[in-house]
């Protein structure tokens, strides 16, 4: 007996039509016909199952909260009105974020379901035929992917060998392609370095459209364009709470002139920041000293980890101002990656990306004991 939905009137029991359940051998043709080539050519953003591994692949903060803070948070959640739509402007949280992120007065703020969603909103708003999204390469892969989702042309400009911006190449590409928006991750992912701030200033002057400085790793970088908002009318600063220790909440923010943000806000879905995120992020930022102590610890441990990698024969770590370290291995990176995984340590293999990332692996800074386990596993993997 098929169960009936209680909301359905009697006599209207829903039943799948049998022919709809059959394997349809014209389906591949339909896929080819209806899914455009730009989407079919993509591979879905791959997130490996960590299993029992030590997870050092995704730039997460490895620390949890003190027990009394967890209790206070759970107490706060009691008051969350799950039966109501969230405040579409998330006013309480937005006020808290302004303070915590030192958004200059007079600059507008828009929140996103992670900064990934903000990238999507920006690109959707600017999308149009012949329009170009630009970013240095290698950089954060979502810029390229979201450009493809929105049928925008993507132009990647190769970084220099040291992963610094190739300013001449950037300026030439800007002159040729007149990009609607340039994304600059500051510090850059997956390379970890900070681009030269003066180079970014030159790019801001030369860009005909927007320049989004993506500060996902601001907590570890000790450098920011946030105080410079308003200096140029095309500068926007994007941040996220993910790498600070709240990746599970999905919350990002975009700060900049209201003339731009008012337009983006029209494209944003009204309730994109859910009630639990609004309450929890507000609570967490109220206790920002706990998060800051953790990110300070991570920044310190990054230096210890970097020194240990640099001392290892056949390993070349690149300078990092983020909570991860990119390093090149002298041997076969795929083999080293697999050996680490077999040893219970999951990091990120960038060798498949090729180009300047050939033979490169990326490790997130974990707890000191996790970092030591990783170093031991790496040591045996390259022995
Ligand atoms: C992790 C990351 C993001 C995405 O952050 P979410 O807020 O978790 O979506 C954006 N930009 C860069 C450069 C990142 O590394």
Write the layout of secondary structure elements.
Elements: H1 18-21, H2 27-34, H3 37-40, E1 54-55, H4 67-78, H5 91-100, E2 108-112, H6 115-126, E3 132-137, H7 141-149, E4 153-158, H8 167-177, E5 181-185, H9 197-206, E6 210-214, H10 218-221, E7 235-240, H11 242-246, E8 252-256, H12 258-267, H13 275-286, H14 288-310, E9 315-317, E10 324-329, H15 333-342, E11 345-346, E12 348-349, E13 360-364, H16 368-382
Parallel strand pairs: 1-11, 3-4, 3-5, 5-6, 6-7
Antiparallel strand pairs: 2-8, 7-8, 9-10, 10-13, 12-13
The protein binds pyridoxal-5'-phosphate.
Pyridoxal-5'-phosphate is lined by residues 114-116, 140, 185, 189, 214, 216, 240, 242, 247, 252.
Output the number of helix runs. Answer: 16
Strand content: 15-25%
Which class of the largest domain in CATH terms?
Alpha Beta
Number of strands: 13
Rg estimate, integer Å: 23 Å
> How would the global form be characterised?
globular
**Uncertain spans:** 1-14
What's the rounded overall pLDDT mean? 94
Structural class: alpha/beta
* CATH homologous superfamily title of the largest domain: Type I PLP-dependent aspartate aminotransferase-like (Major domain)
Helix content: 40-55%
End-to-end gap? 63 Å
Largest sheet: 7 strands, mixed
């Amino acid at each position: 007996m098929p169960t009936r939905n209680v909301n359905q009137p009697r006599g209207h029991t829903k039943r799948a039509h049998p022919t709809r359940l059959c394997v349809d051998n014209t389906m591949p043709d339909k896929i080819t016909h209806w899914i455009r080539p730009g989407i079919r050519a993509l591979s879905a953003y791959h997130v490996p199952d960590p299993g029992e591994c030590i997870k050092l692949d995704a730039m997460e903060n490895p620390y949890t909260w003190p027990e009394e803070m967890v209790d206070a948070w759970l107490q706060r959640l009691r008051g969350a009105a799950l039966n109501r739509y969230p405040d579409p402007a998330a006013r309480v949280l937005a006020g808290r974020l302004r303070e915590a992120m030192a958004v200059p007065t007079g600059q507008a703020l828009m929140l996103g379901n992670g900064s990934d969603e903000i990238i999507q909103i920006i690109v959707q708003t600017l999308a149009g035929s012949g329009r170009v999204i630009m970013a240095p390469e290698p950089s954060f892969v979502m810029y390229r992917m979201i450009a493809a989702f929105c049928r925008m042309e993507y132009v990647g400009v190769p970084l220099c060998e040291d992963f610094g911006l190739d300013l001449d190449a950037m300026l030439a590409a800007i002159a040729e392609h007149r990009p609607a928006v340039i994304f600059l991750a500051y510090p850059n992912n997956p390379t970890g370095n900070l681009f030269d701030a003066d180079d970014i200033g030159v790019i801001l002057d030369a860009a005909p459209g927007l320049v989004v400085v993506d500060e996902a790793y601001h907590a570890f970088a000790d450098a920011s364009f946030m105080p410079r908002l308003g200096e140029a009318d095309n500068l926007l600063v994007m941040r996220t709470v993910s790498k600070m220790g709240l990746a599970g909440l999905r919350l990002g923010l975009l700060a900049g002139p209201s003339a731009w943000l008012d337009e983006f806000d029209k494209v944003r879905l009204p309730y994109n920041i859910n009630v639990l995120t609004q309450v929890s992020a507000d609570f967490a930022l109220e206790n920002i000293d706990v998060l800051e102590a953790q990110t300070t610890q991570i920044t310190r441990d990054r230096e210890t980890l970097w020194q240990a990698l640099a001392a290892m024969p056949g390993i070349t770590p690149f300078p990092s101002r983020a909570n991860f370290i990119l390093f090149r291995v002298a041997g076969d990176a795929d083999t080293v990656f697999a050996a680490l995984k077999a040893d219970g340590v999951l990091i990120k293999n960038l060798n498949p990306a090729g180009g300047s990332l050939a033979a490169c692996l990326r490790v997130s800074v974990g707890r000191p004991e996790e970092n030591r386990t990783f170093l031991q596993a790496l040591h045996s993997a390259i022995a």
